[in-house]
């Protein structure tokens, strides 16, 4: 649930990285960092908090010099929420400086960390990202960074979208399954020679910079950018690995104005809402989303069903997303202050709520109780993804069954638990109808079919946090 960004060949690299991270802020709100190279050395500035809180005009203008930069926004999963875990990580490896940013989660991180520590490695952070640094260092005997990265990939398991900076070189890659997204763009200048290449977790960052989206970094691909020239290498062994991209990116994580995995996220979410309407007939006076994540599915549901769409809840935009708050106390607080009902739209009405997912159930139950208090005669709920029944080990902060309401109660009991008149989840079959390549997605959180095992963990009880 992190965001990564890179840019090469622009005199304002740090400033554009700042704006790129700003566009990716929804992917991580706990820390932010930018590393640049000025032709001599790497400069790093990282801090806790949001992008505009971490960077100042002086930082961007004077400290982060150079025409090449990578950046990272972090939501802590593997490793605590602490400054030492902020990325990019910068290290000196056999006389070579490297900076690295990571989105994803290594499922064999604990095993690799123990092996490396037994061999004498000293870790400075508690993130699984640092495992890449140590593995790269151990394979740098001949000074070939690209081969060292490939050798590191042969040891790790799980989900990773990586971006590395070393000298005038940026290396970007995705794991063979392609769990997490990473795209390539180009920022055109005044002449054909005056252009900069950019990398980002989502294409909304390109839109902000007015960069052209070229393509995704493919699953199992390593892209090397140096001196304005881009080359591509296939990670050995990735040819036979099935693509299993995280479908939750399309359901919830990604911004709706992004293209992710080649899919228009806005259109996918509207199609999910339309598909729910096909699956379950609903009698209601109005359709309302839980903003903002339920808005686009609710639009699709309304357009297909013919039930009027209304914003009967108004969001306070100065409150963070409750799903990714790090503590339960903060989640409960966020639930109470995040949305305020429009009383005139609720009294005496039959309401149909459309939301993108139900995780713990805390948010839905609290809001439904409020709607009842304000005089709603019926409250129905339609969810634009299947029931979340299993933890995720690939970068979503859903690490135990006990966190998931649908995994702990029979589905037929959930309407009563959530104070609803009816509840319908989008079926897996219906969900797959909304994407272009249904065979390319990981559905483990719905059906328990894990593409990569969580080493040393039982999938039914794993409590280890994911990166």
Please give a handful of descriptors for the protein shown.
seven-stranded antiparallel beta sheet; 467 residues; 23 strands; 26% strand; 28% helix; alpha+beta; 16 helices; single chain; six-stranded antiparallel beta sheet
- Beta content: 25-35%
Count of DSSP H/I helices: 16
Residue share in helices? 25-40%
Q: From the alpha-carbon coordinates, what is the Rg to the nearest angstrom?
A: 23 Å
Quickly give the structural class: alpha+beta
Give the strand order, joined by hyphens, for the main sheet.
Answer: 3-2-4-1-10-9-11
Shape: globular
Question: Average pLDDT across residues?
Answer: 91
The count of strands amounts to 23
Distance between the termini: 7 Å
Low-confidence parts lasting 5 or more residues at pLDDT below 50? 456-467
Largest sheet geometry: 7 strands, antiparallel
Report a brief summary of the structure.
The chain is an alpha+beta fold and 467 residues long. It is 28% helix and 26% strand.
What does this structure look like?
With 467 residues, the protein is an alpha+beta fold. A hairpin with a 4-residue loop joins strand 2 and strand 3 (42-48). It has helices spanning 13-23, 51-54, 57-63, 109-118, 129-138, 145-155, 204-209, 248-253, 265-279, 295-305, 328-338, 362-373, 405-408, 414-417, 428-432, 444-447, and strands at 3-8, 31-37, 42-48, 68-74, 89-93, 96-106, 158-166, 169-174, 183-188, 195-200, 212-216, 221-226, 229-234, 245-246, 259-260, 263-264, 286-289, 313-315, 339-341, 350-355, 378-383, 422-425, 441-442. The chain contains 16 helices and 23 strands. The strands form six sheets. A seven-stranded antiparallel sheet has the order 3-2-4-1-10-9-11.
């Amino acid at each position: 649930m992190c965001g990564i960004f890179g840019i090469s060949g622009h005199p304002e690299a740090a400033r554009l990285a700042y704006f790129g991270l700003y566009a990716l802020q929804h992917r991580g709100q706990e820390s932010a960092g930018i590393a640049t190279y000025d032709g001599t050395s790497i400069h790093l500035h990282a801090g806790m908090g949001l992008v505009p809180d971490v960077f100042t005009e002086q930082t961007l203008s004077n400290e982060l010099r150079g025409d090449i930069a990578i950046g990272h926004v972090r939501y802590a999963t593997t490793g605590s929420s602490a400054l030492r875990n902020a990325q990019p990580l910068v290290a000196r490896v056999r006389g070579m400086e490297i900076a690295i940013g990571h989105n994803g989660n290594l499922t064999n991180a604990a095993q690799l960390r123990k092996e490396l520590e037994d061999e004498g490695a000293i870790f400075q952070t508690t993130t699984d990202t640092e495992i890449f640094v140590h593995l790269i260092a151990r394979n740098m005997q001949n000074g070939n960074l690209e081969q060292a990265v490939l050798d590191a990939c042969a040891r790790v398991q799980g989900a990773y979208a990586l971006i590395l900076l070393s000298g005038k070189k940026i290396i970007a890659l995705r794991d063979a399954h392609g769990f997490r997204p990473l795209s390539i763009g180009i920022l055109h200048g005044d002449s054909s020679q005056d252009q900069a290449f950019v990398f980002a977790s989502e294409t909304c960052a390109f839109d902000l910079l007015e960069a052209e989206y070229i393509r995704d970094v493919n699953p199992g691909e390593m892209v090397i950018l140096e001196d304005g020239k881009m080359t591509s290498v296939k990670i050995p062994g990735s040819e036979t690995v099935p693509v299993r991209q995280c479908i939750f990116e399309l359901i919830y994580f990604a911004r709706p104005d992004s293209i992710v995995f080649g899919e228009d996220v806005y259109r996918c979410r509207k199609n999910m809402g339309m598909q729910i309407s096909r699956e379950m007939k609903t009698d209601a006076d109005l359709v309302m989303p839980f903003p903002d994540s339920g808005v686009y599915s609710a639009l699709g549901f309304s357009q297909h069903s013919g039930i009027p769409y209304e914003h009967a809840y108004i969001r306070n935009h100065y409150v963070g997303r409750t799903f990714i708050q790090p503590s339960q106390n903060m989640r409960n607080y966020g639930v109470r202050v995040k949305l305020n009902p429009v009383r005139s739209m609720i009294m005496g009405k039959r309401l149909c709520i459309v939301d993108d997912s139900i995780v713990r159930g805390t948010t839905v139950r609290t809001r439904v109780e409020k709607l009842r208090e304000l005089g709603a005669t019926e409250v129905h709920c339609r969810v634009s993804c299947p029931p979340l029944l299993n933890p995720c080990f690939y970068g979503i902060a859903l690490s135990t069954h006990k966190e998931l309401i649908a995994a702990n109660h029979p589905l037929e009991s959930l309407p009563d638990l959530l104070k609803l008149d009816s509840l319908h989840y989008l079926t897996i079959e219906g969900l797959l109808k909304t994407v272009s390549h249904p065979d390319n997605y990981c559905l483990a959180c719905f059906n328990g079919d894990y593409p990569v095992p969580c080493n040393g963990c039982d999938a039914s009880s794993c409590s280890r946090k994911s990166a």
